[in-house]
Amino acid sequence: MSRYLLTGLGLLALMCLPSCMQQGDSPSGDETQVLDTKEEILARIVAPVFPERDFLLSDFGASADGLGDNKAAFAAAMTASREAGGGRIVVPAGEYLVNGPIHFVSNTELHLEEGARIFFSSDPQHYLPVVPTSWEGTLLHNYSPFVYAYQCENIAITGKGRIDGESSETWQLWRDKQKDSQLLSRRMNNDAVPLEERIFGEGHYLRPHLIQFYDCRNILVEDVLIEDSPFWCLHLLMCENVTVRGLRFDAHNKNNDGIDPEYSRDVLIEKVVFNNGDDNVAIKAGRDHEGRSMARPTENIIVRDCQLQGLHGIVIGSEMASGVRNVFVEDCVAGGYLKRGLYIKSNPDRGGEISNIYFNNVQLDVVEDAFFITSFYHQEGEGHVTHIHDVFVENVYCREATAAGIVVHGFPELKVHDVHFTNVTIEKADIAFDLQDARNIVLEDVSIGGQAGPPTWAQ
């Protein structure tokens, strides 16, 4: 077992040359596959266009005083949009309580004018009956997400208003009660229990998502402020052709990931201001047996011009058993605390492949670890090692890594390989490098802990 461990500061350039192929190192995927370029992906991502037809929410009996229930008003407006062939539902300034979920229909834009706030009931009964959804990478039936679209086309949420989960003192308390249901969902996954038998909801404590689009195409989410979510904030599950632009986040509960693309492709995330209690962007692709069986990788994801702040900036995994590939992150700046800038994580329960990840022109401030890649997340799992390879980090500045600058932890049977760092500066770090079960880790113009000057004269 080949193992590298480097510590210390002041490294300008380093290359770990590839070792000989050993048993267990053979790749699990086709590394010769031709993937789409960033330009080809962007050419395919087109925001939906809607009929010039407005449905004013107040025309459907809405109450903007923060007291009356607006669930029926939203449902009636959605029905009117469907019957008319689509349009824009306009939510004027005001406070709109909704006792239950808002369910989308195709060809509909939900537009929140500036000063409009939609907030949701904390009564679980309001989110029944259960709907098809997923939870931590396992498909199942659960309480409805608060804003939910299932098998829709041409849908959007836009405007300068707010979507508020109102969850910090209610739904968030379920986290301490979720363990039994969480483990049950994982057993159902690995035992291939039929989906129609995976019924959660009442009697269980799996928190619903704030916004979830499931098996949808042609999506736009733009400008709104998202806050106080019960679980993940925006979950893109099995979606295609998605534009997320100009969002703002103020979501600090446990598991308040900002944006989670899962089993999705052709996704553009740009000009988003993150401020999350968990990952900013968490790219996923299912977990364990189900994820491997689905064989539906999350691919062609572009994240650009974003302000990162929260737990981790860009995360891939840990639910990624169908694989993640062709991810482009560029021109992003840390606007506050991050624990890690780029975090790629899997374990031997997952399998699958993570490849062709590009992280370019990013500025980080103070982090714990600037870059952390591991195929042994939480030191658990067996039987299905993930193949992690072809990661490219270029033009990155970090003021300080209080723990480690660059960490790459592979697995003895399948090493992480072909990871390239070019023009990377980390001004200060406690540990410069920790490379274990890794091969062909290439560093060019890398400085950690400051640059060394010319050699001094011998005395």
Quick take:
The chain is mainly β.
The count of helical stretches stands at 4
Largest sheet: 19 strands, mixed
What is the CATH architecture term?
3 Solenoid
What is the CATH topology assignment?
Answer: Pectate Lyase C-like
In helices, the fraction of residues equals under 10%
Low-confidence stretches: 1-30
Specify the structural class.
Answer: mainly beta
Shape: globular
Mean pLDDT over the full residue set? 93
Write up this protein.
- The structure is a single chain.
- The protein is mainly β and 459 residues long.
- The protein has one domain (35-448): Single-stranded right-handed beta-helix, Pectin lyase-like (Pectate Lyase C-like, 3 Solenoid), CATH 2.160.20.10.
- It is built from 4 helices and 32 strands.
- It has helices spanning 38-44, 71-84, 179-190, 288-294, and strands spanning 15-16, 54-56, 65-69, 87-91, 94-98, 102-103, 108-112, 116-120, 131-135, 138-142, 147-150, 153-158, 162-164, 211-214, 217-222, 225-227, 234-237, 240-245, 248-250, 259-262, 265-270, 281-283, 298-304, 307-308, 312-316, 324-334, 340-345, 353-374, 387-409, 416-426, 429-436, 438-448.
- It has a 19-stranded mixed β-sheet that branches. The protein has a 6-stranded parallel β-sheet with strand order 3-5-8-13-16-19. A 5-stranded parallel β-sheet has the order 6-11-14-17-20.
- A hairpin with a 2-residue loop joins strand 9 and strand 10.
- It is globular and about 85 Å long.
